[in-house]
Amino acid sequence: MDFLLEYGAFLLKTLTLVVAVLVVVGGIVSIGMRNRRHEDSEGELKIRKVNDELDDNKQQIEYAISSDAEIKSLEKSRKKKDKEQAKAEKKLVGVAESKPAKHVYVLDFDGDIGASDVDLMRREISAVLTMATKDDEIVIRLESGGGMVHSYGLAASQLKRIRDKGIQLTVCVDKVAASGGYMMACLAERIIAAPFAIVGSIGVVAQLPNFNKVLKKYDVDFELFTAGEYKRTVTMFGENTDKAREKFQSDLEDTHELFKQHVKQFRPRVDIDAVATGDIWYGQQAIEHRLIDEVGTSDDYIINACENADVFTVRYEYKRTLQEKLGLSLQAGVERAATRFFTLLHNRIQNKS
Questions:
Q1: Which of 21, 38, 282, 294 is the most exposed place for a label (fewest CB within 10 A)?
Q2: Which residues are catalytic?
C-alpha cells in the first residue's frame, strides 16, 4: 500500500512538471506569434458560404436516417429541383431589371484586454466594404469582457466605418459584451443577445499596487523625473499624494463621461444615467433597459438569414509556421486537460455537498 501511495505521489509530481513545461512552451510560442504578427502581416481571407454548409449538413443527415428507397426518392426530387433552378436562372440571364441577391457577411471578434483581434477585424471590414452595398448586411459575432480604453475605442471606430457606409450593422452576443465590448456593440443598428449573455458594464476602472512602504522599509529610494505637472499622477513605487489621486480620479470620470456620450449617441432610447453605473445585465434584463433589441442566439439569426440571402463568413488568417502550430496544439492540450481536471473537481465537490 505504501508503495502505491509513493508511486501515485511520484506520478502526480511528474504530471505537474510536464504541465508546467507545456504551459511555459505554449506561452513562449504565443508571445512569439504576437510579435510575428506585428512584424509580418502576411495572411489571407477565408470565405465560406453558410447556405451551402447548411444544405450539405441537411443532406448528410437525410442520407443517414433514410432507407434506400427514401434516398432514391430524395435524389430524384433533388435532381428535379436543380433542373428547375437552372431553368429559372437561365431566364434571368440578360435581364437588367433582376434584383441581385442580398449578401450577409459574418465576422467574428473575440476580444481580450488589449482588443488584439482588431488587427484581423480591420482587414476583414476593409475587404467586405469593397463589395458590400447598402442592400447588404454585416453581422459581427462579438465576445468581449472589455479592456483598455484606447484599444476598444479603435475597435469601435472600425465598426463605425460600416455605419458611415450606410450598410446595416448587426451585432450578436452569445456570451458577453461588457465595458469595451459594449462600447463596440452599441454601434450596431440591431443588437441581439442570448438569454444569459452578459451586457453593459458601462463604467471605467483602474487599479495598481503601491510598493512605496515596502521600499521605505528596506531603505530603498525611488526617484521619478517628469516635465509637466500631470505627466505622471499615481505611481506604483512613489508616494502618491492626494492631489495626484484627485487628478487620476478626474481622468477616470472624464473617460466615463465620454463612454456615456458614446452610448447615448448610438442608443438614444437608453436611460444613460440608469445604466451607466458599471452594472451588468443578462439578455432578458438588458432588453428591458433597451441595451439590446432582441433576445436570441447568433446561430438562429444567421440560419434565418440564409432563407432570404446569401450568407458568407469572412475571416482573415495569418499563415502559421510548423513551430506555431505545434505550440498552439500544446497549449490547447494543456487547456483541455486543465478544464477536465477542474470539471471533475467541481463535480466531486457538488456530489459531496
A1: 38
A2: 179, 231
Q: What is the CATH number of the domain that holds 179?
A: 3.90.226.10
DSSP 289: T
What is the radius of gyration, based on Cα positions, of the chain?
A: 27
Q: What is the pLDDT of residues 226-258, one digit of tens each?
A: 888 888 888 888 888 888 899 989 999 999 999
| Number of CB atoms found within 10 A of residue 315's CB | 17
Q: Which residues contact 312 (CB under 8 A, 6 or more apart)?
A: 47, 48, 49, 50, 103, 104, 105, 106
Instruction: Please report, as a single letter, which amino acid is at residue 163.
Output: R
Phi first, then psi: give them for residue 111, nearest 5 degrees. Answer: -90, 135
Instruction: Give exposure, 98-109, as e/b (b: 16+ Cβ within 10 Å).
Output: eeeeebbbbbbb
Q: Are residues 49 and 38 in the same domain?
A: no
Question: Has residue 306 got a pLDDT over 60?
Answer: yes
CB 9 within 8 A of CB 88: no
Q: Which residues lie across from 170 on neighbouring strands?
A: 139, 190
12 domain-assigned: yes
φ/ψ (deg, to 5) at 15: -60, -40
Tell me the three state secondary structure of residue 294.
Answer: strand
Cβ 172 vs Cβ 142: under 8 Å: yes
Q: Residue 236 and residue 226: Cα distance in Å, rounded?
A: 15
**C-alpha separations of 255 from 205, 216, 258, 262, 290 in Å:** 10, 34, 5, 11, 23
- Asked if 194 and 306 sit in the same domain, the reply is yes
Contact predicate 151/118, CB 8 Å: yes
- Domain membership of residue 246 as a residue range: 207-266
The pLDDT, as a whole number, for residue 263 is 97
Number of domains in the chain: 3
Q: Which residue has the cell 450596431?
A: 188
Neighbours of 8 (CB within 10 A): 10
Nearest CA among 143, 188, 193 for reference residue 169: 188
84 located within any domain: no
Q: How long is the chain?
A: 353
For 23-59, write each residue's pLDDT tens digit: 555 555 555 555 454 445 578 999 999 999 998 898 8
